[in-house]
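Budget justification aside, the reviewers requested a transparent look at the raw inputs and outputs of the sequence design task funded under Objective 1. We therefore reproduce one unedited record. The lines immediately below are the structure tokens for a 498-residue chain.
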């Protein structure tokens, strides 16, 4: 089946090309093929080159160009809100040329937790015998086969292409992370999001959003989708009211379900018991009280599990059946990932904001019998204001702080370390500074004692370190395991060559 642009966007006096069939949309002028429509989004960094890119696309055989501003080119058309519409356009195009029953969509937003929640949702569905696609920070694909992703939330065209492909592969559900950037830039537009969940909000991405209020407003966009049937909100979070307000004023009138570990809610957690093997708790719901046994460490992972249970229950599954498989959950890589060495525990976690680091350390304080370590750094070319806050968090909640590098990117590492120490009183605290991250991990492994828990924070699932704009292979999990193995190596077993 063919489709024309006029089928997607009605123009009173259409140009000839608008009534001709085309072969999809493209955002990259270098990759345009004959018959495609090139969408020339105005570049944030190089707006003056937009017309140049558009002309390049036409030269390569593009049927036409759609732009946000008038480019005065032949076969070009201006749609001021093209960025917001292109996801829906691509979805309609794909359905026209290859109809398929789309995957039911569950989306999660929040500063911390969205990666784990979306992953747990997919695991729960998989354990119920359903194919579920995952899209987010740790990769895209149908569990367990994920590929690395360039962004937490893909651009609207790639998002629709991926979702269509997953549906063709038999995915009945898609569990996706909805970033604030993605929501604000319309990357999820065209997605029929059925169930949406909110975890929490803390300081992050203020280099982009400028204020927490603007950041929260961007997140709330997830609860304004016309397709929304269920809104799941953590009412323990200080910004929950912004999400509740968005859901309440959504003309679709979604069912609103709340969860909490501290107050009355639709799903209320009680009687938490922590151990080094996980946690157990009671979950009080309208359908009764359930015992939940989680293999995941951390108070926030209790919240994450509850959010994922509600989401999958609302997708049509019995809560008791879901709770029965909770002990089998693994969670996302690099999210409170545990490496055990006899009586020592090493935790690799993505915590890269002050709030996330505090949460991780607070949680592990409940388990540690000796010293709690925090090994962390701060990324370059990002919000400088949070750097001393990260250091203060480590000093306040850990026994030993070790500051090291994260991803310096193009920034001078010395400046990052200076910012991390600015205005900080290190008296009465144990602090080490080792700039090389590999050496910092080796130091922590060499000096950690039985009963210690060492948190290596900031990078989590990432398998690279970006220095001077170049990505070098680096994996915290591999480095920790290597350091442990090296420590156990018996050097006296070697013998000289004869």
């Amino acid at each position: 089946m063919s489709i024309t642009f006029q089928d997607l966007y009605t123009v009173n006096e259409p140009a000839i090309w608008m009534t001709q069939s085309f072969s999809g949309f493209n955002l990259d002028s270098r990759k345009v093929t004959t018959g495609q429509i090139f969408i020339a989004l105005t570049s944030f960094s190089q707006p003056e080159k937009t017309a140049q890119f558009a002309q390049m696309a036409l030269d390569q055989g593009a049927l036409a160009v759609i732009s946000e501003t008038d480019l005065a080119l032949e076969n070009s058309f201006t749609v001021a809100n093209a960025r917001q519409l292109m996801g829906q356009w691509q979805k309609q195009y794909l359905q026209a040329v290859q109809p398929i029953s789309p995957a039911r969509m569950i989306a999660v937003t929040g500063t911390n937790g969205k990666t784990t929640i979306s992953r747990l949702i997919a695991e729960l569905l998989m354990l119920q015998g359903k194919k579920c696609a995952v899209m987010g920070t740790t990769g895209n694909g149908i569990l367990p086969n994920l590929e690395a992703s360039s962004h937490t939330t893909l651009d609207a065209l790639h998002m629709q292409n991926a979702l269509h492909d997953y549906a063709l592969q038999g995915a009945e559900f898609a569990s996706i992370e909805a970033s604030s950037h993605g929501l604000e830039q319309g990357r999820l537009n065209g997605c029929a999001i059925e169930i949406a969940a909110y975890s929490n909000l803390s300081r992050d991405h203020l280099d982009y959003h400028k204020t927490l209020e603007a950041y929260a407003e961007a997140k709330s966009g997830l609860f304004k989708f016309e397709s929304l049937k269920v809104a799941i909100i953590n009412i323990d979070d200080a910004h929950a009211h912004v999400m509740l307000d968005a859901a309440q004023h959504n003309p679709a009138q979604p069912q609103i379900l709340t969860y909490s570990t501290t107050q009355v809610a639709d799903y209320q957690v009680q009687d938490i018991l922590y151990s080094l093997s996980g946690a157990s708790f009671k979950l009080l719901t309208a359908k009764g009280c359930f015992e939940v046994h989680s293999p995941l460490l951390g108070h926030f992972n209790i919240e994450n599990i509850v959010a994922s249970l509600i989401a999958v229950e609302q997708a049509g599954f019995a809560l008791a059946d879901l709770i029965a498989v909770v002990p089998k959950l693994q969670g996302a890589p690099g999210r409170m990932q545990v490496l055990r060495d006899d009586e020592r525990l090493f935790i690799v976690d993505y915590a890269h904001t002050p709030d996330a680091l505090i949460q991780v350390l607070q949680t592990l304080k409940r388990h540690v019998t000796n010293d709690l370590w925090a090994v962390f750094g701060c990324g370059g070319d990002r919000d400088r204001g949070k750097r001393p806050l990260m250091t203060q968090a480590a000093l306040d909640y850990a026994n030993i702080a070790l500051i090291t590098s994260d991803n310096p990117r193009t920034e001078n590492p010395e400046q990052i370390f200076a910012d991390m120490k600015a205005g900080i009183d290190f008296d009465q605290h144990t602090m080490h500074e080792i700039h090389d991250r590999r050496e910092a991990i080796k130091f922590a492994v060499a000096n950690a004692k039985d009963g210690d828990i060492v948190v290596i924070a900031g990078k989590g699932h990432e398998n690279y370190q970006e220095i001077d704009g170049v990505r070098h292979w680096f994996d915290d999990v591999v480095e920790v395991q290597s350091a442990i193995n090296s420590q156990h190596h018996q050097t006296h077993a070697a013998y000289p060559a004869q």
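The first strand starts at residue 25 and ends at 26. Residues 120 and 331 are 6 Å apart (CA to CA). Computational costs for records of this kind are itemized in the attached budget.
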